[in-house]
What we know:
By secondary structure, the protein is an alpha+beta fold. It has helices at 7-17, 64-82, 101-116, 178-181, 186-195, 208-219, 234-237, 242-248, 261-270, and strands at 34-39, 42-52, 84-95, 121-129, 138-147, 164-168, 200-203, 222-226, 255-259, 275-282, 287-290, 296-298. The strands form two sheets. It has a seven-stranded mixed sheet with strand order 7-9-6-10-8-11-12, sandwiched between helices. A five-stranded mixed sheet has the order 1-2-5-3-4, with helices on one face. Helix 2 (64-82) packs parallel to helix 3 (101-116) and helix 2 (64-82) runs parallel beside helix 5. It starts with 6 loop residues before the first helix and ends in a 9-residue tail after the last strand.
Amino acid sequence: MVKLMNEDNITRWFAAQSKMDAARFPIGIGDDMAQATIAPSESVLMTTDMLLDGSHFDLSACSLEQAGYKAMAASLSDCAAMASVPVCAVCAVGLPMGFGAEQLKELYAGLVRAGRLFGCELIGGDITKWRNDTERLAICVTMLSVPSGHHPPVRRNGAKAGDVICVTGTLGGSLAGKHLSFVPRVQEALEITKAVRVHAMMDITDGLSTDLNRICMQSGVGAVVEAAALPVCAAARSADDPLAAALNDGEDFELLFTLAPTACEKLAALKTIPITRIGRITAEKKMILHRPDGVPIPLEPKGYDHL
């Protein structure tokens, strides 16, 4: 009997039940987006994200426009994770009692602001309202994208022993407001995959420690992370434990990817994309953190679990 209280366990269980034809659905459960073949040489990628007031944003501390922006940007970040090109989105909302037309317009403004950064229009959706006054706002965005044409969609399961582990941007400090204002790394993902071949990639939503573990599990590899190399953001540096913040805070919405050392050197030489080399992929199926003093310790996945 599967234990449902762990997101990765139940995701693996769902994937094991799948009877999908790999020719029709090349990418299924377990990646940032699923992929469906719609013609012999054409396919579409899909993702859906549900955001809840009180879990993913807090309307007592942010605006409806910010909540809408985050909802659309989170799905755009999934497109970045696969290095695909966003096309369009639909959005379904569950509205609290008392939610009026002006509030809905403000929410809409945030959704379209994020989408139009990348030419991704909001083309439809659904509106419904809770029937009691205890329920809070729910926003569900479903997005379509297409392969870039210069690189296949990048999955989580392609990391290879000897690969370099890289991240874009900085890590930690999402609670300082970054999770409401981040710009999805769509353009960076396309530039990276145009320059080099990437073996595995995802966006960091649940914390580096948890998301790197997902790449390792799906790829059948391990990892060594150099704590001293982590690009800790300013907000995380002021935390009680900056290293823990960088590893576990989550909602960085940065890219986490692996590639061959020669490809990493080529990418670093371009000096146009903010990337940091933080470790390496190993054949041994465990994660190790080299502390700033050089002492190796187990790296446990201690990021956010949605269940």
